[in-house]
Design a protein that fits this description.
alpha/beta; D-Maltodextrin-Binding Protein, domain 2; ten-stranded mixed β-sheet; 11 helices; 21% strand
Amino acid sequence: MAELARIMAVSALALATSACAQTGERPFPSARPITLIVPYAAGGTTDATARILARELEARLGTPVRIANRPGAASQIAMTELATSEPDGYTLSYAVLPTVINHYLDPARDATYTLADFQPIAQHWVVPGMIAVAADGPYRTLDDLIAAARAEPGRVTVSDSGMLGNPHLMVLMLENASGIDLASVHFDGGAPSLTALLGGHVSALAGGVSDAVARVRSGDLRVLGIAGEEESPSLGSAPTMASLGYDVVAVSAAGIVAPAGTPPAVVHTLSEAIERIVTSEKHREELRQLGDITPRYLAPAAYRDAWTEHEARLGPLLEEIRSE
């Protein structure tokens, strides 16, 4: 099947090149710049990784790749712009799951798109969620925190980076998996959420593992559980929640998408270039330098499958929240 897919992709590329020659159009990519939309403000993790990828993609494709920051509405502004862009491969965007899925599964957001309006190009990286506490606090294990929440429902406070962001969703999953009631405290971003824990204003922090690495190394934090499928090399012996008996998988996954209808040959060219970049040791090391960011390339079909798996997990949870 893999060989058949490769042959079909090469054939599509050959047909597209032939068609361009007959019409006088230049094959993709031409010298025309590619715009890579970043749905967040400059300076964050997604922006930093996008700039690294853009630089390497520009060198590999031989055409300019420009970053366009479009922050707002938890990336909904950027995704709306992408969905209505010309499907020619020259306008791409980062998409962070499960955030984008929240847009169209929540009727209150009035999103004008679903997965069907996008063409997945390639997944780039993943960052699992985690629960952390102060290293000198009373909770030594995740079971300790859960026992405290069970004894006093709603008294154990957990900070996160915003309502229905991946950290908050992870907390909701943990509540469902363990039968407890935690008190979520929402902040506008990961930094103030971490500050709240360090200042002793909340009992625990829900965030991404990259939020904890430096503070674990300095001895300020203890990670009680990771909401990923494997342990984090940067966090030592911190266990996964699944290994502790809690079915909680909450991973932020960032990838590149294009508007639906982008020609298969263009999708192949972009995805192949990104694969070569993301799987290189140079790129892996650059992401490691930014924090505990795991490069994890997925080809278009596999990326679409991962997206639908996110939907399947998130849909029932959001439905439960709306019914409360």
